[in-house]
Write a structure and sequence with these properties.
Bound molecules: flavin mononucleotide
Strand content: 35-45%
CATH class: Mainly Beta
Number of domains: 1
Structural class: alpha+beta
Length: 219
């Protein structure tokens, strides 16, 4: 299914052309496929990191925090990224099981937002991704006590040197590093419109598996 822009031109007769939304026409759409279509357009146009997304988490007393991570896979409709399991984000994810993601592609003037439930991916999935990384990145995962205080940059670089000596080519994945998967319970697709009259569609699942309903919202 090709979406291109949300709006689709429908030729009713040779003289009358009506602009209506493809999503509005169909009502039920596959947000994962629509997201993949938009991401592949972003991959062609963005200068760098089209897979960069803002990940918001919340502490157990309700304080939000946000940072950028990279989307590395979509597995069975879940959005997967990798990180240090002892970082702030991981602590908050473990405490609440909830998160939000936002992609903004400047080159396309599009935004996609998701909210959902998060859980760790299996060890097998994390191992496979870890082994696909460069040796430097594998060592980096071991060296970084992410989100904790670091006394100096020199200390970190010394740790990297020590780890490089310790490990040859076969570097095991640290147990404190791996993936999380966000299972979306709501999507929002947003596209820039003239005079700030942007197009927004909220998609929520129906009771039928893999079926979503789209509603247009005011900009
Ligand atoms: C473009 C970009 C991509 C990033 N990708 C990741 C990533 O995939 N995983 C990660 O743990 N941190 C990534 N970071 C660093 C995070 O933004 C953040 O600094 C780090 O994960 C610590 O966050 P926390 O203390 O809130 O847990 C990235 C930063 C940028 C700017």
């Amino acid at each position: 299914m090709k979406y291109g822009k949300i709006s689709t031109k429908i030729v009713i007769s040779t003289k009358i052309i009506i602009w209506r939304s493809y999503l509005e026409l169909e009502k039920i759409v596959d947000p994962i496929q629509l997201f993949k279509d938009w991401l592949s357009e972003a991959e062609e146009k963005e200068i760098r990191d089209p897979n960069a997304m803002q990940l918001a988490t919340v502490s157990k007393d309700g304080m939000p925090s946000v940072r950028t991570v990279l989307l590395k896979d979509i597995i069975d409709g879940d959005f997967v990224f990798y990180t240090n399991y002892q970082s702030r984000k991981s602590r908050e994810i473990t405490q609440t099981g909830k998160g939000a993601i936002c992609f903004y592609w400047k080159s396309l003037n599009r935004q996609v937002r998701l909210i959902g439930n998060l859980k760790k991916v299996s060890d097998e999935v994390s191992d496979k991704y870890y082994q696909s990384r460069s040796k430097g990145s594998q060592i980096g995962a071991w060296a970084s006590k992410q989100s904790r205080e670091l006394e100096s940059r020199e200390f970190l670089m010394q740790q990297v040197k020590l780890l490089e000596k310790k490990y040859n080519d076969d570097i095991p994945r640290p147990s404190f590093w791996g993936g999380f998967a966000l299972k979306p319970i709501e999507f929002e697709f947003w596209e820039d419109g003239d005079f700030r009259l942007h197009d927004r569609f909220i998609l929520k699942p129906t009771d039928v598996k893999n079926e979503w309903i789209a509603k247009r919202h005011y900009p």
